[in-house]
Amino acid sequence: MKPQFNQLNHLRQTPSTLDVPVDNECWISIDEAEDVAGSIRYALAALHMTATDGLAWKWVALALHSALQGACVCHLTTTAAPVGALTGKSTAEWLTFLQAPPGDGPLRAPKTVLLALPELVKAIRRPHSAGDRSNVIGIPVSDRELAWLRRFHETIRNQFIHFAPMGWSIEVSGIPAIGVLVARIVGDVADAGWAFRHKDAAWLRTLKLDLSTLALRIRG
pLDDT digit string (tens) for 119-145? Predict the structure, then answer.
């Protein structure tokens, strides 16, 4: 299988450097909003598995991180995608690329470097943080909640992603509280209107239902 990924700037990208024999090609199409919704669904699926498989908490954590990061990116990204959710250097490179007269700028799009999750959350807290600057009030996240999310990113998520070859124990008792927080923030991002503006009412209702289910079930 060769997965197709469309970045926020809608440039088609394929893993052409992978020399993998393929009998029948199979492609999937996904956008940043669908990735958020899918991450919530997989958090729910992994949560169900935790009753019989403790390792499933890893996938709950990763799905929650993915959902929150994706929602922040959707909220922050402007019409000059992917500008809005990038590091300062990456933003400057993209603006140079996007604003250059035809034939007078870089021939290839620059690398997209997103802000880390804690910085994304800090950004959405600001007034007018949406890509269209329509939100007078920022997405509500307290300093204490931001500190939780920073620890979640730097310890649990990074430990699961950058798994060293060793045995270790990790406390997962705080993940339910993080799950409730993530569900609330993603819901607030949806309510702000910009992030999922291209999705219809049925899609938004399904997302809200999944978020409510997650917040309820993860409490135990």
Answer: 999 999 999 999 999 999 999 999 999
Contact 194, 134 (CB under 8 A): yes
Q: Is the pLDDT of residue 206 over 50?
A: yes
Contact 105, 96 (CB under 8 A): yes
67, 166, 220 from 213: Cα distances, Å:
15, 35, 11
Q: How far is it, in rounded angstroms, from Cα 28 to Cα 115?
A: 26
- In angstroms, what CA-CA distances link 121 with 48, 71, 74? 27, 10, 12
3-state secondary structure of 12: strand
Q: Using CB atoms within 10 A of its CB, is residue 7 exposed (0-12), middle (13-18) or buried (19+)? A: middle
Q: Quick check: pTM over 0.70?
A: yes
pLDDT digits (tens, 9 = 90+) for 59-99: 999 999 999 999 999 999 999 999 999 999 999 999 999 99
Which residues fall within 8 angstroms of residue 76, CB to CB, at 6 or more apart? 84, 85, 120, 123, 124, 129, 130, 131
pLDDT at 21: 67
> Which letter does DSSP use for residue 174 in this model?
T
- Tell me the H-state helices in the chain: 32-49, 56-76, 88-99, 117-124, 143-151, 158-161, 175-192, 201-218
182 near 68, Cβ under 8 Å? yes
